[in-house]
Amino acid sequence: MVDHKTPSLITLPIELTYRIMDNLDAEALCCSFRDVSTRTNAIMDTYEPYKRMSKLKFCFRGIRTNEVEPLVAALKASSTLTELKLDYNKISDQGAQYFADALKVNMTLKLLELYSNNIDHAGELHFKEALKVNNVVKIKGLSL
C-alpha cells in the first residue's frame, strides 16, 4: 500500500512557500498567512516583501470586529509598517480596543486612519489610553 501524504503549507519547502507568497496581495499575506503556525510566522519574518511592507490600505472591505485579529497580529509583529488605512469598515469599539492594545507595542506606525468604523466614545477611550504610551502614531477619523 502506497502512503500518499498531501503536502500542507506547514510541510512545504520554504522555496515553494515563497513562490506561493509571491502571488498573494498584502491583505492575503496579513490576514491568511500570519499566525497560521510558528513556522509560517518565521517564514513571514524572513520574506523580503513582507519585511519591506510599509503601507496597508483596507478601506471599504466590510471588516468587522471579529475579523481584525490577523491585522492586529500583523501590526504587533511589524517593524516596518508606517501607515494603516482602515476607513469605512465595521470595526466598532471592541475592534478599537484590539488596535489600541497593538499600538501600545508598535512604535513604528505613524498613521492610523479609521474614518466611518462605528467607533464610539468607548472605542475612542481605548485609543486615548494607547496614546499615553505611544506618542508616534497619528490617528485620523476619531475625535481624540
TrEMBL record:
The keyword Methyltransferase does not apply. This is F-box domain-containing protein. The lineage of its organism: Eukaryota, Metazoa, Spiralia, Gnathifera, Rotifera. InterPro entries: F-box_dom, Leu-rich_rpt, LRR-containing_regulator, LRR_dom_sf. The keyword Zinc-finger does not apply. SUPFAM superfamilies: RNI-like (SSF52047). Residues 6-53 form the F-box domain. It comes from Adineta steineri. PROSITE patterns: FBOX. It comes from the Eukaryota.
